[in-house]
Amino acid sequence: MTILVAHGIFCLLLQGYTSFWNDSISSGLRGGVMIELAIRGRIYLEPPTMRKRRLLDRKVLVRSDAPTGDVLLDEALKHIKATQPPEGVASWIQLLTGETWNPMRMHFQMRNVRERLAKSLVEKGVLTTEKQNFLLFDMTTHPLSNSGQKEQLVQRLQDSLLERWAGEAHRLQRRTLALLVLAHASDVLEGSLGSLSDERYEMAMTRSRAVLEAEPDAQACKSSAAADEMIWAVLAATNV
Q1: Which of 64, 96, 206, 227 allows an S-S link to 38, with CB 3.0 to 4.6 Å?
Q2: Structural domains for the chain
Q3: Distance CA 178, CA 238 (A)
């Protein structure tokens, strides 16, 4: 399962709908797009050179423009390829989210990402669609029809912070690290650990903070993989 789809499930299924009060999910999903493109070998950060520039100062470059087969990923890749001069990770997350005051750059915004992800998950049989009344209006929600996917993701994240704790941030499996970073970016991490006992919850939160408060540039130096650099760059952009 791709990081983008997994993260979409993770965010959407905590309540069956995306909360009006959570402003972080949109940027978290765009961060997931950047990470997935890097994992698939489509984009990478420009080399640090002798100046050893920070992750957020390095531009996003295209390694391959071959279609991924995913509409959202291909849409983002098309924008990145066509943009000169290149932009950094933080800029791309803002542009793809539509958080720009420049009307000439509004066309970069990826629209209706949550709805498109939800529709994809409905087609896969993970979600269903129904109307739910919220006092003054009705809202389309997407309750679980198959809880297995959500339980797998939540269990995977919990295990990575407990039974399978790697001891150091850079030793986490790549996609597990990405899921942790994106759950943090979307402000759903605490909710994913809510089923734990008090003692295990405190341990999981302590270990997650050790990862999320680590210095992204220092952690990225411990791996030469382009995808790992992108994950740490998305964390750096989230923590700005």
Answers
A1: 227
A2: 3-238 (1.10.3630.10)
A3: 13
Neighbour count for residue 237 (Cβ, 10 Å) = 23
Peptide bond into 85 cis (omega under 30): yes
pLDDT band at 19 (very low <50, low <70, confident <90, very high): low
For 154-212, the pLDDT digits (tens) are 899 999 999 999 988 989 999 999 999 999 998 889 989 999 999 999 999 999 999 99
Axis crossing angle, helix 25-39 with helix 226-238, rounded to the nearest 10: 170
Phi, psi dihedral angles at 19 (to 5 degrees): -70, 140
Query: What three-state secondary structure class fits 19?
Result: coil
Residue with tokens 């964390």: 235
pLDDT digits (tens, 9 = 90+) for 85-96: 999 999 999 999
Cβ-Cβ contacts under 8 Å for 57 (sequence gap 6 or more): 88
Identity of the residue numbered 130: E
Omega prior to 216 cis, within 30 of 0:
no
| Position 180, amino acid | L
Give dist(CA 3, CA 23) in Å, integer: 20
